[in-house]
Amino acid sequence: MNDLSPAPTPGAAPDPHPFLELCADAEGHRPLLAVRRFDAPFLLTASLSHGVGSSRLALDRGKAGKVRVAAFRRIAGRVVLVQRNKHHLATGDAAAVRAGEESFATSVLWSAPALREQDGAVVVDATGLALTDLHGVAEQLGALGQGLYGVDPAASFPLTDEARLGARGLRLPALLTFRGSSPGAAVRDVVPVPGSLTVVQHLHLVPLPDPPLPVRRYHPGSGGYGIGHDDHGAGTTAGRRVKLQPRFRLEPLDPAAPSGPVRRPIVFTVDPAVPEPVRSAVVEGGNWWREAFERAGFTDAYRVEVAPEGIDDNDLAVNSVRWVHRDGRGWSHGQALTDPRTGEIISGRVRLGSQRVEQITALAEALHAPYGQPDEAERLAAVERLVLGRMRQLAAHEIGHALGFMHNFASTHHPRPSVMDYPHPRVTVTPDGRLDSSDAYGEGLGPWDHFLVAHAYGRFPGRGDGHDDSRADGHDDEGALAELRRAAAEQGLAYVTDEDAHAPDAAHADAVLWVSPVADPFAALDEALAVRRAALAGFSRAVLPPGRQTGELEERAVLLQLYHRSQLSAVARLIGGTRYAYGLAGEAGGGAAPVAGEVQRRALARLSGLLRAEHLALPRQMLDALTPPAIRYGRSPEYFDTRAGRVFDPFSAVEATAALVTQELLDPARLNRLGWQHAADPAVPGPGEVLDALLDTVWRGDPPADDGLVAAVAVRETAGWVVLRSAVDAVGSDLLHGAVRTRLTAVLRRLAEELRAADGTAEREASATLSSFLAGDDSVRLGPPPRIPPGAPI
């Protein structure tokens, strides 16, 4: 197999002596390597061509592992594979580099005896290397509490016939069998014999690109991924932390031209397993990025196409878009495998979860209720349009990650949202009461997406200002990049990404996931509630395909009952919310500004009002339509819990709906922020006021009028206990500051006194429970918080 030498890296001179070769084995069972270069670094990564199939485990078909920097060493007659430290380096003269290398540990990954020397190379049996769990399957299973697993050498085999040496170096596939004990539920759900889990791993040994791609330094406001290391060498003037912008190599045919064709375009190939018409939607959405590259000055530099027949999508020379099947709701992913020295993207890997089509179809069917209707064909067409619109956007989003771009969860406030945001379908109610989803998802890129490509890939020949010492080709001009950022800021293109947008404790007022493209969060919430009312009013068996068992109606009911959840989060983010931007110390701006007090109070009034029975109760015709799952079927986590035996439990549905409000407003981090903001500015509601507003809605004032609601009093009572349970949890949290806890405790003490004098049984019981809790009675039990069925990804 010596004739399979790797093709040269673009821009490099042909190398007649690759650092590795595959050698023929007389028996054909062993992968024999001829190592030509020792102590020369290369890239090492491990991917899975055959995964586990569980959304909870994130061990998918096509998943790439982390990129390592490794080198072979020859020690005492053995070939040793050493992983170098890529996070702690030292630049400078020879002494500085040596000091860096000797200061931090390396890791020996594998070794084997040298078998012979051949044509200036050392031949070694790489079976043990191929069977090493470098992807970290066992570690992942253990970290997720899914059992203690390890590779079983007797049931694991190198796939020698599938080993390849090509344009991206050497690939060693192997069938790995993991034996384990105490397998977790996620493993048991998908593995035939849970104690014996088998995957196929591909090890990739990739030569470093030569010459290296000129680096583009990462800017925190650029929207790109920042990869990097600590530089401990002499002469570092920008601090130890070095961060680079990942990007593909785009070499112009004419280096002096500001625009034009490139030597090697970026091509993503779409798995032909994606069924039509989804496949065409994926190709169309992925190709939206083409416009941005053309606007940045590149001709025919980017495209997405269906993979040609026979293509090897396990080859790192292929940028692949894989169709992945899993058990349960899960995420799609875009990965960029990068050269840690420069940020050059070696390969892009995208995994689209096929269950996303099922999820968005279920929502669209719940909204449009098409089956058996006189206009069934028209409604089904609306369902398909919504689904395909989502898949176009999803393809553009995940490929954007593989191009080197982060999420932007503040783009709802842009003139046009970014495809790197998480979108909620825009649905409205027509004057005649019908639901309109014709504009559910936007088409094409937003201005932020054009900025991303320009900032990561744009070329600025002839603009060098002498301030960028990394500008090896004269094209990476810091002044031009700063101008791009200034122009984006002037357009109002805010950027807020992951850590500042996820979970209730996120503080940024404008960074919320899964919101529709309506800049005003109050208007967006009103719109969502109107859609919810109309969809709930029209709920019937028409929301479910006629061949499905009627127990699945419960799942569709969840989608509608909680339809407003993300827009609710957007309003909640205003309470205790702040606004800030990413930047550098030498740039203008900075600091975090709280949301104005009057806006926070408006948001508090809006959300506390959602605890009224009219927003929590389920309509009678929905309750009348629901039946328990049939025999051999069951409820999944997508359903509301039930404590009513096998039938639907309205109490649990009301609890989960009320908990949408309490989990947001009574989060300890939010309450702590409010405590300080209120102390600094009394116009901001304090944490005690927040709790009082919730309690006013569910425990004080007149009971709800009937107004046709089913069990309105019971609904209000249920919401009241949800608020009390959440308040007690907040007061007992170790995360709460003492001053904030004092305010909340005072509110609960006052409520207990008020309810003690009330006439109702529920009020007196609540008073007794609160009094016992406040007295330190450890026997007080309010039960666990309600479980809210998952709402993401959409």
Radius of gyration from the alpha-carbon trace, in angstroms: 29 Å
Strand content: 15-25%
Total strands: the figure is 26
Main sheet? 12 strands, antiparallel
Regions with pLDDT < 50 over 5+ consecutive residues? 1-17, 463-476
Oligomer: single chain
Average pLDDT for all residues? 92
Percent of residues in helical segments?
A: 25-40%
Which class best fits the helix and strand makeup? alpha+beta
What is the CA–CA distance across the termini? 47 Å
Shape: globular
The number of helices is 22
Q: Any overview of this molecule?
A:
With 794 residues, this protein is of the alpha+beta class. Among the domains are: 20-211, no CATH class; 595-774, no CATH class. Helices cover 33% and strands 17% of the residues. It contains 22 helices and 26 strands. The strands form six sheets. Strands 1, 2, 3, 4, 5, 7, 8, 9, 10, 11, 12 and 13 form a twelve-stranded antiparallel beta sheet that branches. It has a five-stranded mixed beta sheet with strand order 19-17-20-22-21. Helix 7 (355-368) packs across helix 12 (553-561) and helix 19 (687-699) packs parallel to helix 21 (738-756). The chain is globular and about 95 Å long. Residues 1-17 and 463-476 have low confidence and may be disordered.
How is this structure best summarized?
With 794 residues, the chain is α+β, with helices and mostly antiparallel strands. The protein contains 22 helices and 26 strands.
Annotate the secondary structure layout.
Layout: E1 20-23, E2 32-35, E3 42-50, E4 68-75, E5 78-84, E6 88-89, H1 94-103, E7 107-118, E8 121-125, H2 127-130, H3 137-143, E9 148-151, E10 157-158, E11 164-166, E12 169-181, H4 185-190, E13 196-207, E14 227-231, E15 241-244, E16 260-261, E17 266-270, H5 278-286, H6 289-295, E18 298-299, E19 302-306, E20 319-324, E21 333-338, E22 345-353, H7 355-368, H8 376-402, E23 428-429, E24 435-436, H9 447-457, H10 478-490, H11 521-537, H12 553-561, H13 565-572, E25 578-579, E26 593-594, H14 597-609, H15 613-616, H16 620-625, H17 650-665, H18 668-680, H19 687-699, H20 712-731, H21 738-756, H22 761-774
Helix pairs in contact: 5-8, 6-9, 7-8, 7-12, 9-10, 11-13, 13-17, 14-19, 17-20, 19-20, 19-21, 20-22, 21-22
